[in-house]
């Protein structure tokens, strides 16, 4: 059975999608960009500040389902400039203390709100 996941502690969707969807033992979290959940405004800072906010938004959505980054199975990272990869990777890595998930990182021409980074993930719930 499909369940829509929503928390006020992460940005409200800016289009026709959900923050996340729980389906069985999976939670599929939509791509997050650096939108401040308290203001709904895009934070157009540097790659470091954007990545930190994206990871915190993902964390808030996971917490809504009682999960942490330890249950993340797969992440997709989209970055505007592959030269920013070392900074993104360092911040991202700080959220995965052990057994990091599968992942891909792709450079893209443009992201929503002209963001520098967007990250989505899939987490698993033990039955």
From TrEMBL:
**Source species, domain of life:** Bacteria
Task: Name the family the entry cites.
Answer: Belongs to the RutC family.
NCBIfam families documented for this protein: Rid family detoxifying hydrolase
What is a single Pfam family found in this protein's UniProt entry? Ribonuc_L-PSP
What protein name does the entry list?
A: RidA family protein
């Amino acid at each position: 059975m499909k369940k829509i996941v929503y928390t006020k502690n992460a940005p409200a969707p800016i289009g026709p999608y959900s923050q996340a969807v729980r389906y069985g033992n999976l939670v599929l979290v939509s791509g997050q960009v650096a939108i401040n959940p308290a203001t709904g405004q895009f934070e157009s800072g540097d790659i470091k500040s954007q990545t930190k906010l994206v990871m915190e938004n993902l964390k808030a959505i996971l917490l809504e389902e009682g999960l942490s980054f330890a249950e993340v199975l797969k992440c997709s990272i989209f970055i505007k400039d592959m030269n920013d990869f070392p900074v993104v990777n360092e911040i991202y890595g700080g959220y995965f203390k052990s057994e990091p998930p599968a992942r891909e990182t792709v450079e893209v021409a443009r992201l929503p709100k002209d963001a520098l980074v967007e990250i989505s993930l899939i987490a698993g719930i033990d039955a």
